[in-house]
Protein: Cyd operon protein YbgE
Organism: Acinetobacter pseudolwoffii
Amino acid sequence: MTEAALEKTVVDKKPNKFAMMISCLLAFPLAAVLLVHPSAMLDANGEYSHSAMMYIMIGISGGFVHGVGFVPRHWFWKWLFSPFLAWPLMIWGYYTWFFS
C-alpha cells in the first residue's frame, strides 16, 4: 500500500538545457574563486560578510544542483535549489567579487 501511495503519475518535463548551462556557467567561476582565492570576496573594510557568503554559497549550490539536472522531490528543496533563487544569489556573488 505504501508503494502505491508513493508512486505518483508525474508528467516528465524535459529539462531546459540552456538554463542548466547558465546555472553551471554562473556557479563554476564563483566556486573556483571561493576555493582558490577567497580574499577576492572581501568587502570594503577587508572583512568577510559571513551572512552574505552564506547566501552566495546557497546560490552556488543551487546553480550546481540545477546545472547537473538533479530535481529534488520535496517542495522546500525544489524552491531552495531552483534557478529563480540561485541566479540572483550568484549575481550578488559576482557583484561582491567585482565591486567590493
